[in-house]
Write a structure and sequence with these properties.
Blueprint (H helix, E strand, L loop, with lengths): L26 E7 L12 E6 L4 E6 L18 E4 L3 E8 L5 E7 L19 E7 L17 E5 L16 E4 L6 E7 L9 E7 L9 E2 L9 E10 L5 E9 L12 E7 L10 E2 L11 E3 L2 E3 L5 E5 L2 E9 L10 E3 L5 E3 L9 E9 L3
Antiparallel strand pairs: 1-2, 2-3, 3-4, 5-6, 6-7, 7-8, 9-10, 10-11, 11-12, 13-14, 14-15, 15-16, 17-18, 19-20, 20-23, 21-22
Length: about 350
Amino acid sequence: MNVSYDGGRTWSAPVIIQDDDVNGQNDKNWIVVDNSDAPGHTKGRVYVVWDRGEPVVYNYCDHDCDQQQNWLPDFQTAHGVVYPGQGIGAYPVVMKDGGLGMAISAGEGIPNPGSTDQPTSIPTGGQDFILAPKAGSTPWPAPLVFLPPVAVAKNSNGGTAAQRGSSGMPSASADPKSGEVYDVWDDTRFRSDGKNDVVFSKSADGLAWTPPVRISGGPTNDKVNHYVPAVSVDENGVVHVMWRQRDESGVAPLFTDVIDTYYSESTDGGTTWSTPLKVNSQPSNPWYGAFSRAGTFEGDYDQIASAGGYSYIVREQGQRDYAGEPVALTKNSATTVALTNAGKGHQHQRNWVAVVRDTP
C-alpha cells in the first residue's frame, strides 16, 4: 500500500499488508475507500481484497494507512477469509448503507496442458456477489462478517482467442444516490458466433439481481469480440462502462493487429445506453505486447473512474517502437501465438488514459 496526502503529487513508502509464500499466490488485488459519513459508514476506511488461488481474503485500515500498525496485524497469514473456495477477480464496492460488497467469478477452469506459460483458466462457476452488511459499522480491528455468496448469473464467457483476456472476471460499482450496484462482465449468452458481449446485472441490495442485459450492442453474429470491461457510477448516478473490442472475423489466431477501446454510458439506470464511442486515436497492436498463456497479454485490469462530468479510462496498449520493427508474437497454432527468440526484445506496452466528457 502506498498513500498520498497531496492528491498524488508525492507518495509514502510502500507498506506491506500481506507477505507470505504459503498456499499459492496473492493475486488480483483491488481497493475501495468509504467516502461517506452517513450512518453505518466509517469515512476514510480503506478496504483491500484479493484472491490467493484459494481463498478470497481481505484487509482493512481506518486511517494513516501508510503505517503498518493500522492494518490488521497478522499479515503473514491468510487472516480475513471472505470466501473459502476458488474465486477470481474479487472486486469490492461500498454499499449505500455502509456494507462492503464484492463481485467475483467463482471456480476456475482446467489448466491448458499445451500451454508454455501459466495455464489458461476460465472460471467454471458463476458470477457471484458476497456481502458484509455491517462492514462500515464494524469497529477496527474486529473481523468483518460476510453472508454466503449469492448468484448473480451463470458465467458464459467464451474466452479470448490468442489472448490472455479477462475470462469473465467482473467489475462492479455502486450508485451513491440510489444504492444500486452494477456488476459487469464479458459473456457469450446472447451470441450465435461464440464471441463475447459486455453485459451487466444490477441489484438494489446485493442479494437479488436482474437478468443480464447487453451493453455493447451490435449484431450477435459479426465475430466482433468485446472483452475486459470495467464500470463506474458517478456522483449523479450516471453509469459508465469501457471495454476492449476486436474484429475476429479474419483468419485465426492473428485475426487483425487492431484492438480498440470503447465507452458507453447510461443516464437511466441501464435501460438505455449511448452509442459506443471509440476512445483511442491509436489502436493497440497485440503482436508487440507481453506474452502469457499462449497469447498476447495487454493486462486484464483495465479501469475507469468517473467524477465531475468526466470519465478517465486507463488501459495498456501494445505498440512498435520504430518503423519496420519485427513483431514479437507470431502464429503458433490455429488458436495460439508464440514468443520466439527472434521476437524477444520487441515487446512494448504503454499505459494510456482517455478522458471522456459525459454526453449532454
